[in-house]
Amino acid sequence: xxxxxxxxxxxxxxxxxxxxxxxxxxxxxxxxxxxxxxxxxxxxxxxxxxxxxxxxxxxxxxxxxxxxxxxxxxxxxxxxxxxxxxxxxxxxxxxxxxxxxxxxxxxxxxxxxxxxxxxxxxxxxxxxxxxxxxxxxxxxxxxxxxxxxxxxxxxxxxxxxxxxxxxxxxxxxxxxxxxxxxxxxxxxxxxxxxxxxxxxxxxxxxxxxxxxxxxxxxxxxxxxxxxxxxxxxxxxxxxxxxxxxxxxxxxxxxxxxxxxxxxxxxxxxxxxxxxxxxxxxxxxxxxxxxxxxxxxxxxxxxxxxxxxxxxxx
Length: 313
Known about the structure:
Radius of gyration: 20 Å
Structural class: mainly alpha
Largest sheet: none
Distance between the termini: 49 Å
Oligomer: single chain
Strand content: under 5%
Shape: globular
C-alpha cells in the first residue's frame, strides 16, 4: 500500500498548475532578479569576477544545504540528478560567471538590454524541452529578437565588427539561464520549487567552492562595505530566495506564459542602474531595450496563441 502511494506521489505534480497565481510568484522572483545586474556591476568594482560568480554560489549553496537538512528532504532519484546537473550548469555556473566577467567592462544598463532576450529564450527552451510544435511565426519573431539584441550590442560597441567579448558573454549567459530555467521549471513540478534550486546549488558546490578558493589565491578579496553588501545580495537573494518564487511560478506554468513576466526585469534593471549607479540612459539604450522587449513579448504571445484547428463539419 505504501509502495503504491509512493508511486502515485512521483506521478502527481508537487506544485499543481495555477497560471494566475504562478504569474504573481514569477513577478516576485523577477523583482528580486532585477537588482542582479546593477549589484554585480557594483561588486566587480572591488572583487574579481571569478570570486563573485563562484562565491555567490557558495553562499547560496550553504543556505541550501542547511534548508534541505533542516527539513529532511528526500534525495532526488535516478534521472533527476542528471536534470539537476543541467539546472546547475545553467543558473549556478553559467549565468553568474558569464555575467560577472561581462560586467567588468559593460555598463549595467547595457547588460540589462542584452539580457532582455532571456524571456524569448526561456520560451524557446521550454518549447524544445517540452517537445511542442509552435507555429513558424514564433521562430521568426524569436529570430528577430535575437537580431535586435545583437544589433544593439554592435551599436553600443562601435559598429559592425566591433562586438565586444562582454556582449558574447552576455548572450552566452542568456542561453545558459534559459536552459536552466526550462529544465528547472519542469523539475520543480516533481521536487518542489525551493527544493529544485537547493539541490542544484548543493550539486554544484564542490566546483564553485574550488573556483572560489582559486580566485582568492589569485586575488585576495578587498572591497568596500557597499561592494560586500552587493555581493551578499547576489548570494542570498539572486542565487537563493529569488529562485524560490521564480521556479514556483514556472512550475505552476505554463512556462511560456509565465516567462512573459520576465519582460519587466530589464526595464527595472535599467531603472536601478540609473538610480543607484548614476548611469546615463542614452537613446540607443532606450530604443534598443524597447526593441528587444517588444520582440520578446511578441514571441511569447505568438507561442501562447497558436492557430486554432478547424472543426470538422
